[in-house]
Amino acid sequence: MEALNVLADPTRLAILESLTKEPASVGAVADRFPISRPAMSRHLRLLRDAGLVESVTDGTRHIYRVRPQGIEAVRRYMDQLWNDAAARYKITVENLKDQS
All domains of the chain, ordered by start, with CATH? Predict the structure, then answer.
């Protein structure tokens, strides 16, 4: 899942968390972090390409905000991962009981 690869970067994760509190332009988000605007643009592009954020035009500015569908897709993926792991654990425990 591309979104998890994108979120593996601590800066991008922090940017996403910041945008959950308040949508913002590239410049406004860059002001919250010790990185250049070009670097911020790159981080936002990767988050957008992964479907985690979207931008809307406000005059000449692009305002970035969290895309709920992207977050939901990550949650569903993690839920499935958890369910699969729990099912495998249950089978392992049952097999151990059968062996004793």
Answer: 2-99 (1.10.10.10)
